[in-house]
Amino acid sequence: MIADGAGANTLEATRLYLQGLQPGDARGGAVGSLVVDGPGFTNAMQSVYPLDTRTVPGSDEQNPDVVYDPAQNYDATPVAGTNAAGYQRGFAGYDWNRATYPDSGNTASAISDGQKTYNNAINVDGSGDAQRSTAELAHSLGKATGVVSTVQFSDATPAAGGGAHNVARSNAQDIAAEMFGAGVLDVIAGTGNPDYNDDGQLRATPNYQWVGPEVWNALRDGSYASSDGGTWDLLQDRAEIIAAGSGEPTDERLAMLVQAFTGSNFYRSGASPAGETEIPFSVPRLDTSPTLTELSAAALNRLNADEDGLYISIEGGAVDRAMHANNFGRMIEEYIEFNDAVQYVVDWVGSGESRATWADTLLIVTADHDHLLFGPDGATIPYQSVLPDQDGDGVPEYAWFSNNHSNQLVPLYTAGANAEDTLALSDQRDVVLNAEGQAVAGSGRTYTDEAELGRYVLEQFQLGETIDWNSTAERVLANYAETGQWFFS
Ligand SMILES: [Zn+2]
């Protein structure tokens, strides 16, 4: 489960907001802390930096400034003034973060296929060669596989988590065609619906940016078949998606393209003007959009039909969109949406309704990358954490230092089978000492790296198994070699 863009301060902001609610508040049940703060979760961090070989001419060596380096991250040398985007520069460490950030393509790919790659890549390495993903491995082992998001299903994180391959995330129609056509995925859920706008209303003219007209029209009339002959059941209506969360699931593969184009809720009308704080939930969320929990329930109910087990990637995709927009209130909304889904998954694995048990299921709750969000005095106090509400609006105090990503470590929580192994993986220490020999603020944590985590997950799926890669994944790769296309036409 990936909350896109959610760094330590995103989680802290959500905790503080929830702690400020009264018991019995409309967000009741989640008051006080996050699910990952509860029992059973390990707690570490992971580094997120992209592959960057461009700055050492003639070699394939990683740019030494782009790896995660605690000394550069926590460099508290003051830097006066504002940058071109109008943000206070603050400290040398903030400048370093602004210069070395990854995107969701390479970070989600690293978690999915265990390889570092460049920004914008989807499950290909630095040379553009396809890498085998966890989704493909799980499918080769006969497991059910799915991908769920609150944003476009063919954008970077669900594309990588869903086992697609592309040299550029912007080739979204090709990515969509591979996700539906390759035969790897049993469930696809997200936005990108060509027929709806971001207020859940039908458009006059379809927009095929995220799925091409051939695939979309065939899905709509029920004629679409994957390369292996599998057919898709398409749900768009929220009530039908909720109904799919229980009872006997469809025999077909399950596509849920919710009635929204870019995000299930983040882009709805009524946002506060830039620079003003929007109070979370002050603009009603859309009745037409299923929650991430409702999508996850329908996905898990479908995947649970397979007795060989499952792999699923669930993304709270709009946390990142809210952070790009510097919309702190909607960021908190979207992280709460994600946290609710984590609670659902925890309950589901522990329930008698699922084939999964904590003895055979590993749950990973993390982010792909962070942004540059600190406390209100973050321009003068390096790496100041967001602070509890001080002006009575119920919203914690904060300041933005970018409208883009950063290279900071992100939280990594795991629960279930062999979860403690991920603590052993986290064998690097994020420590910078001050003149008195004490760890500077924010530092001191242990961390692993996303590619290491990705390789670990691939290994976990292969424990005690005989791998027959010569299945869909091989056919996808062979088809690419022959036709130059990632999908079957
Ligand atoms: Zn982003």
Fold and architecture overview:
Helix 1 packs across helix 12, helix 4 (about 105-115) packs parallel to helix 14 (about 450-460) and helix 11 (about 320-325) runs antiparallel to helix 12. The chain has helices at about 10-20, 70-75, 90-100, 105-115, 135-140, 155-160, 170-180, 215-220, 240-245, 290-305, 320-325, 330-350, 420-425, 450-460, 470-485; strands at about 1-5, 40-45, 80, 90, 145-150, 185-190, 230-235, 255, 310-315, 360-365, 375, 400, 410-415, 430, 445-450. The chain has 15 helices and 15 strands. It has a six-stranded parallel beta sheet with strand order 1-9-5-6-8-7. The chain has a five-stranded mixed beta sheet with strand order 10-13-2-15-14. It is globular and about 65 Å long. The model has no long low-confidence stretch (mean pLDDT about 90). The two termini are about 30 Å apart. It has one domain: 3-Layer(aba) Sandwich (Alkaline Phosphatase, subunit A), CATH 3.40.720.10. Strand 3 (about 80) and strand 4 (about 90) form a beta hairpin. By secondary structure, it is α/β, with parallel strands linked by helices. Bound molecules: zinc ion (ZN). Zinc ion (ZN) binds near residues 5, 320 and 405. Zinc ion (ZN) binds near residues 5, 320 and 324.
